[in-house]
Design a protein that fits this description.
It contains eleven helices and five strands. With 213 residues, it is an alpha+beta fold. α5 packs across α6. It starts with 7 loop residues before the first helix and ends with a helix. 30% of the residues are buried.
Amino acid sequence: MARYIGPVCKLCRREGEKLFLKGERCYTAKCAFERRAYAPGEHGPASQMRRRGRESDYSKQLRAKQKARRIYGVLERQFRRYFAVAQKRTGLTGLTLLQILERRLDNVVYRMGYASSRNEARQLVTHGHFVVNGRRTDVPSMLLKPGDELAVREASRQKPYFKELREVAEKRTPIAWLERDLNNLSGKMHRLPERGEIDGNLDEQLIVEYYSR
């Protein structure tokens, strides 16, 4: 299973904003972006100053695409495949693409508050701690559909992480398009997310323009 294994803080610095890839750490003073809020490179902020100028349309499109990829933890080949699927469906291609990304199992686990980041959610799913519609799955990219139910596997509930999960998850804001049952460490997807319920700093139109060149 291909995945990015490099330092994720460099991804935030490259995009020039926090992508919250490390969960709770991103909200503390330990966040690397707080100390070095400039693009990574051998010569530090000086090289960034030299590169500063009018940003081309292509650059804006590329950065929008890269930002979405990095937020959801998807590599280029898979992201391009998601776009091809979205393009074939009726409706707005950009919105459909974001809905596909939101339907990924690792993202749903994160949105429900059962993990502090998508990377952590991906690891939990890969280790087989969740069941979908009663069946154990270890595929983070599995796409859920309205009506699907997920829950922490019975054998996993005795682990220290899941024993403390109720109190931790309770502090996180519930998502409107998902149902969450903290007592049973389960949840259900009852509809597709609307655009206003997806990260507002993503520009799906620029992503569509990038792949439509």
